[in-house]
Amino acid sequence: MDNELLLRIVTNPAVLVGKPVIRGLRISVDQILRSLAAGIPEAELLKEHPELEIQDIRACLLYAARIVEDERVFPIPTA
To answer: Counting Cβ atoms within 10 Å, is residue 5 exposed (0-12), middle (13-18) or buried (19+)?
Structure first.
């Protein structure tokens, strides 16, 4: 299921300078994530962008999770 969702996220140098976008639309993953972080409900996003599907929003969240899952954080020593 996860791999199917991630297929919705694509990159193409000719679309938004290669930023990850949803299914080749000019809606970036970044745009969706920032909207969700700002508290915009999924229903409102779907209404504002009729070409968007709920699975696209889920794909953005999964994409972001995959990006940070292997991130290593090293504490900065304090004096």
So the answer is: middle
